[in-house]
Design brief:
- The protein is an alpha/beta fold.
- Helices cover 45% and strands 19% of the residues.
- The protein has one domain (2-208): Alpha-Beta Complex (2-enoyl-CoA Hydratase, Chain A, domain 1).
- The strands form 2 sheets. A 6-stranded mixed sheet has the order 1-2-3-4-6-9, with helices on both faces.
- A hairpin with a 3-residue loop joins strand 1 and strand 2 (10-15).
Length: 209
């Protein structure tokens, strides 16, 4: 469900459910959370997150979402906390966290983008806060989104569920950089090189600011 490549100073996490556009479910959420917590303890400088296949992440798995309709209020609350904990583990990780998006990034998939320190995307990537289309609220990702975008942008994008482009995402602050497909990996390598050349203590303290 995820692949993790561990180097001495940086890790790479790859979402690996390409057959469902890397949609996540409870087991995958648990694995991602545990990996970021482990990375924090390992004191690496950098964690890069990307996705295998046509899409970075379509958000929550539809079959899981359907099953949640039968959950009690308490069960839904517990599930929501676990989802929030995953994004918090990314946001609160002392390592620099980089998110590399492509294809489609829908619903909860935007939580990965918003909770990461640096997010870049391939220029043809499409984004959508699709929750309201399913009768849901983007509650668990909203604190991380609101840390990056204005209230006006959040209101429009979350309430309309419009599909928006990578460049529009960059203009809101969700993304730092938009690049073409040919230069995407080169951009990731350059960011990685720049971060690894910096002092570990300085990176950690700067994040704490």
């Amino acid at each position: 469900m995820i692949e993790v490549q561990k180097h001495e100073l940086h890790w790479q996490i790859t979402l690996n459910r390409p057959e469902v556009h890397n949609a996540f479910h409870p087991e995958m959420i648990k694995m991602i959370t545990a990996t970021y917590v482990e990375a924090a303890k390992a004191k690496v400088k950098l964690v890069v997150l990307n996705g295998n296949g046509k899409s970075f992440s379509a958000g929550a798995d539809l079959n899981w979402m359907k099953s949640m309709a039968q959950y009690s209020e308490k069960e839904n609350y517990v599930d929501a906390l676990k989802l929030f904990d995953m994004f918090w583990a990314i946001y609160n990780c002392p390592a620099v966290t980089v998110c590399v998006a492509h294809g489609n990034v829908f619903g909860g998939g935007l939580g990965f983008v918003a909770s990461s320190d640096i997010a870049i995307a391939e220029e043809n990537t499409k984004f959508c806060f699709s929750e309201v289309k399913w009768g849901l609220s983007p509650a668990t990702i909203s604190p991380f989104v609101r840390a990056k975008v204005s209230e006006a942008a959040a209101n429009h994008l979350m309430l309309t569920a419009d599909i928006f482009s990578a460049e529009e995402a960059r203009q809101t602050g969700l993304l730092y950089r938009v690049v073409n497909q040919e230069t995407l990996q080169a951009s990731v390598k350059q960011i990685t090189k720049n971060i690894l050349e910096n002092g570990a203590g300085a990176l950690m303290v700067t994040k704490e600011l």
